[in-house]
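[job 4471] stage=fold_predict status=RUNNING
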Amino acid sequence: MRLRRPTVAADLPAGFHAAEARALQVALTGVLSAVERAADAPVPVDVAFEAGRDDAVVVLCRNRVVGFVPAAYADGLRTQVRAAGRRAHLVAPGRVVRDGGLRRVWVGPEPEGGLPPVPDGLDTLPEPQPTILGVPLRRDGA
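[job 4471] inference complete, writing structure tokens
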């Protein structure tokens, strides 16, 4: 018999967009079912937080890494992740939304009046090259 890890609700003073959506588009598309992708509407999801490397806080959705907590919110959530411990999941409500040509994760309850625009400088990692079975489709310099 497998036991589920207990969950602890995250205390979020305000919602935010998860960082690095441009680099994690494959994962963001992968967490959605075919019906959710085809509907092209915001999808309510539960997100979890875990400690990452170099004091980063990772945003997980359906057991996949879909983003990182922006620096402005990382300190508070890092403390909550440590307090929850290794045996519990720190969770919050979220939505996978379409922003132009990208899918993004909004963490927290949706504010009245809709989601705010994505802050500049949120995505710093480059978009990965398209590959088939790990082989790049394009070669740089060729």
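[job 4471] summary: The first strand starts at residue 7 and ends at 9.
[job 4471] exit 0
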